[in-house]
Each structure stands twice: as C-alpha cells, then as structure tokens.
C-alpha cells in the first residue's frame, strides 16, 4: 500500500517530489489565465475518464464557508480541523498552527491518491515537479522556462524567440491541443490506458 506522504525522490532527481501518481504544474504570472485554462482542460480530460485533483496556491487568506453556517461557527469556536460530509460532497477545512507559506509537498498528503489519476497544480511556481508554463508576450513578463529546467512545455498566444532548444510550444488558445499533450505525457510516463481499471505504477513524474 502506498503512503500518501510525498518524499524527495532519491534515485534520479534529488529534491523532486515523489508521489504515487503524476503531478503536473500549470505556472504563469498573475493575469496570464491559469484558472481559465484549467476550467477548459478539466472537462476534456474528465471526458477521457481521468480522475483529476487540482491543488491551487492562494496568495491571500480565504474563506470557503460563511458566517452563521454550522461549520463556520464550529471552526471559529476553536476546531483546528473541520470536516463536513454529505452524501455527495466532503470538505476539510484546516487551521494549521504554522502560518508560514505552504509548500506543495505539505499539501499533497491531504489528497486521496487512490481515487486519482493525475494531480494538476496551479501556482507553486518553484515546486520541484514538471510544469507547463503559460506565457503571453504582451504582458511583458520574463520567461520562466529560461531558469526552470522542470518546465516541459510552454503554451503561448504569440510566437516567442529564444526558447530553450527542443521545448514544445503549445497554442494557449487551443485547450484540446494542451490536453492531448498531457495525455501523451501520461502514456510516456507509463500510466495505464485511460479506460483500463488496472492499478498505477508508483512514480511521480511525467516523462
């Protein structure tokens, strides 16, 4: 049985997060359209039978429940973890004592990887996982792929000069093309055929 706890991969890439199923980051500067792209990718990939989790980094404090709701009142009364469960949905709200910025590795144990085929990660630009960079040249931001060797493709809406040699370039306005690239990476990684119920191999990186 696999543990939910990710650990640095020791054999090939020291420091790379090891997780029982593939992790793929979607990274970009604010305003590029990470969430917009993900909302288009998810239905395409789900239609192929993939079970997907999304881990998102939030820049600020946030609330997902509301005053006068029981879960809110119980949490504000002192519950450090509040689990709300119904027939069709479950939510865990945790109030960690450590208020430092979370890293990806500390969030992954909260997922049930046994019910997933792929984890898409929005944000966490510096996490040691493979990533697709989104880039809009008109925003005037620097290319992340020039300094991050974990970027395996770039999705853009304009031609870009001076990209690393061999880096695949995807059309940011064609989510079907990006979804196909992700599927290809899953097969290269050795992931099971999408509709095959066989269990996964234990590894974490899209190869």
> Would you give the CATH topology of the largest domain?
Rossmann fold
Give the total of beta strands. Answer: 10
How many separate domains? 2
CATH-defined superfamily of the largest domain: P-loop containing nucleotide triphosphate hydrolases
Chain oligomer state:
single chain
Radius of gyration: 18 Å
- Number of helical runs? 4
Helical content class: 10-25%
CATH architecture of the largest domain: 3-Layer(aba) Sandwich
Distance between the termini: 23 Å
Share of β-strand residues: 15-25%
> Which structural class should the secondary elements be placed in?
alpha/beta
Query: Tell me about the biggest sheet?
Result: 6 strands, parallel
Mean pLDDT: 82
Low-confidence stretches: 1-12, 192-205
CATH class of the largest domain: Alpha Beta
The neighbouring-strand order within the major sheet is 4-7-3-8-9-10
Shape: globular
SSE succession:
EEEHEHEEHEEEEH
Characterise the protein shown here.
- This protein has two domains: 139 residues, 3-Layer(aba) Sandwich (Rossmann fold); 37 residues, no CATH class.
- 23% of the residues are buried.
- The strands form three sheets. It has a six-stranded parallel sheet with strand order 4-7-3-8-9-10, covered by helices on one side. The protein has a two-stranded antiparallel sheet with strand order 1-2.
- A hairpin with an 8-residue loop joins strand 1 and strand 2.
- The radius of gyration is 18 Å and the shape is globular.
- Helix 1 crosses helix 4.
- It contains four helices and ten strands.
- With 207 residues, the chain is an alpha/beta fold.
